[in-house]
Specification:
Blueprint (H helix, E strand, L loop, with lengths): L5 H15 L12 H12 L9 E6 L5 H8 L5 E7 L2 H10 L5 E3 L12 E10 L7 H16 L2 E10 L15 H9 L5 E5 L6 E7 L12
Parallel strand pairs: 1-2, 1-4, 2-3, 4-5
Antiparallel strand pairs: 5-7, 6-7
The protein binds S-adenosylmethionine (SAM).
The site of S-adenosylmethionine has 20 residues, from helix 1, strand 2 and strand 4.
Amino acid sequence: MSDTPHPPLVESCEELFLEHGDNYLGQGWTKSQANTDRRRDVMLDLMKGRTGPVTLLDFGCGTGQLLEYMRALHIDDVEYTGLDVSDLFIRVAREKFPDVQFHLGDLLAGELELPMFDYIVMNGLFTYRGPVAFDEMSAHWQRLVTAAMTHARIGVAFNVTSPYVDWERDDLFHVPMQLLADFVAASPCPYFRLRHDYELFETTVHAFREPTPARRTEPS
Ligand SMILES: C[S@@+](CC[C@H](N)C(=O)[O-])C[C@H]1O[C@@H](n2cnc3c(N)ncnc32)[C@H](O)[C@@H]1O
């Protein structure tokens, strides 16, 4: 491990998996499968407007539930690859999908030789911070997203917990919009949209390397 913020998240996800099994609760999500699917839809919207087959890296893939979801939706123009730092999750994912590539390791520790992907999604890596101080989590989040961006040809999506709540929790990573926008605007993928239009008390960022094309050139 390269720095401290990983272990609390990884350990708590693995504990939840051992308690609940391979379902949304076992990947650290709460409330319902419908909420979890909604969150995944917002992530997948990163690739909306694609005009042909694309490659996708699911960074922090857990047991590969996003791939199950994509297959259920018959999304077959996206070539999926997973990556996680948890040995347990990658073992489960490889058993479920023996024909799919899953990388195991910590990008920041230089443990991975990753190729380029068209798109990268990072779902649930920055919503929880456990006992890690806000500034430390903030530095980690920015380092990891920046490192991931260097492997994205087109764009990256990630989510954080919303600051617009009346119940802010010490163990969640509530990121002010200005901090979020300032970071992304100075990143390798500086063209971005902020999704805060769904009911899950979080913000999803879609960040692109180049400006998105004019609407009239996109398929409807
Ligand atoms: C809340 S779970 C979400 C799993 C999956 N993305 C989903 O939505 O079902 C967070 C995942 O991120 C992984 N993770 C945390 N830090 C990571 C890192 N630095 N590199 C790769 N994976 C990481 C954890 O092991 C865990 O599988």
